Amino acid sequence: MKKLILVPKEVTAIPVEAEVISPTVIAGRTLDEVQRLNVYQGKVKLTLADHFDVTGEVAETPAEQIIVVDGDAPHVKYMGAAMDAGRLVVKRDAGMHTGSQMTGGELTVKGSAADWAGAEMKGGVLRIEGDAGHLLGAAYRGSSEGMTGGCIVVGGGVGSEAASFMRRGMIVVKGDTAPFTGVHMNGGEILVFGRAGKRLGAQAKGNGGFMACFGGVEELLPTYMYDTTYSPIFMRLYLRQLAETLNVEEALRYLDKPLKRYRGDLAVGGNAEILIAEP
Amino acid sequence: MSFKLNGVEIEDTFAEGFGMWGTRLIITAASRKWANTAAAEMTGFATSVIACDCEAGVEAEIPPEESPDGRPGTAVMVFGFSAKKLATSLLNRLGQCVLTCPTTAVFNGLPEEMADAMIDVGKSVRFFGDGYQVKMRMGDGWEARQRFWRIPVMEGEFLVEEKVGAKKAVAGGNFLVMGETEAATLEASERAIEAIHTVPYVITPFPGGLCRSGSKVGSTYAFLRASTNTPFCPAIKHSLKDSQVPEGVNSVLEVILNGLDEPSVKKAMGVGIEAATKVEGVKWITAVNFGGKLGKYQLHLKDCVGGG
Question: Are the beta carbons of A98 and A119 closer than 8 angstroms?
Fold first, then answer.
């Protein structure tokens, strides 16, 4: 792996749109070409080197490229957007749309990520060690499909409307979720180890999708119907995968925990599942 | 022609193996007892395709730390004459013997990269869910893709993988253990089976892995396709002109094995023969063949014990 280091020069009030910070865009260029890649601040067209000190090596292919953003970048939007391979590590906070529409590779944010992180993600792994903003892994407005693949792991809590219109893939939240998690969900998996907020799974249709809540639910919609309390084997597969592949160690605590199964959202004739661990 | 191994005469001959299709499943359950119960039920009445719909057996017990869901597991292998016949047998047996067995789940035991074809299993069994079955997807876009079906049952839920791998395999690996007494022959054969079960991707489909009534093609009766292997029956060795039972041999047991590939079958035959020859009272080891006219594989005993 060849490492390219980007050090933000300052945190600006006007956000910087830098979808070029991606192994997919950077690989195969010279360091000089990388420094001259365009970024936008408002309507002003600038270069990457105007906002970052750019050093290190550039790989031939995205899979061999690791990019480290070594500093605070809450004002930098679209980092890792549409990346398809390689690694991107943001050592502190990241701005909006981080990892949106990514299709592969691994993106790690050591701090928190702003709204729309992993929006319409299709593949790869997005790890946010702090909190994530609103609309994590969500569909952009007007779109009927949110996440269609990949995995998002959030170490802290997440804002509202996470996983809206989700179709496939997995979102794991170690902390709490704000209202409307899984709204319009139509497939995929959401596992919340903190407390899930109100309106969970509102208008979710199902299609094999489920929301597992291991730290309770603030309030369940009346349009979800209680079925049973049981310990389904399929959950063991997910929990073991979380522990073994994604280092979510706390998952193993729930291996044999009974889960209350609710089915809905009956308001839309849905067949999604909400599984709530017994306290 | 023969050679000696641990003082036992090994005839320089070959076992005649046949091409079949084989598959491997892992059945897990809440306890070892239930995993083994389901495996035993599923592999019952499956010794030989002479009269059974398939050949099947338990390959290995899988400890919880190695099984797909962390519960005790049992790996079973099923063999059929074609991929289609194998699929039919598999589906029937899965539906009647494993779906019905408390706490079980079924996983593919033959990864796609090792398989020649993938057989729909969960995809067919799912209809038992009567519309309430749930498709389960894992790893979409970030890890190896896996598909399962969750089928509601009275006890809770049956989890079954959508497809299992199948490949062109080898059946009919065999050797005959010939001993001075019934006890010595049985003990040597049991040791052989224990050794064979250390080799992955091999099963011994007969009772306890052994067949005491090996058969030959045809009989004196027109209506019977196969009959007792008279040349190897010690009880009539002096009454029969073409008896192949050596002097001093009073009991013969046949070890029969199927495997997913020729090297596995040969390796299993080798370790089995080696183990059998270590028991006192074993006089001869030979193998059954049809002169190479029927089977695709000639598994020479010399190659097997000599590591090829």
Answer: no
Q: With a cut of 0.85, is the ipTM above it?
A: yes
CB A2 within 8 A of CB A57: yes
Strands B8-11 and B282-286: parallel
CB A169 within 8 A of CB A149: yes
Write out chain A residues lying below 8 Å of B143, CB-based: 151, 241, 245
At B258, list the tokens: 């199927």
Nearest residue to A41 via CA among A50, A30, A32:
A50
Would you say A148 and A165 are in contact if contact means Cβ atoms under 8 Å apart? Answer: no
In chain B, what's the furthest Cα-to-Cα distance?
A: 70
What integer is the mean pLDDT of A135-147? Answer: 96
Give backbone dihedrals phi and psi of B69, rounded to 5 degrees, phi first: -115, 10
pLDDT tens-digit series, residues A56-103: 999 999 999 999 999 999 999 999 999 999 999 999 999 999 999 999
Cβ separation A238–B140 shorter than 8 A: no
Q: Which of B164, B80, B70 is nearest to B125 (CA)?
A: B164
Q: Quick one: how far is CA B100 from the chain centroid?
A: 23
B150 with A124: Cβ contact below 8 A: no
- pLDDT higher than 60, residue A105: yes
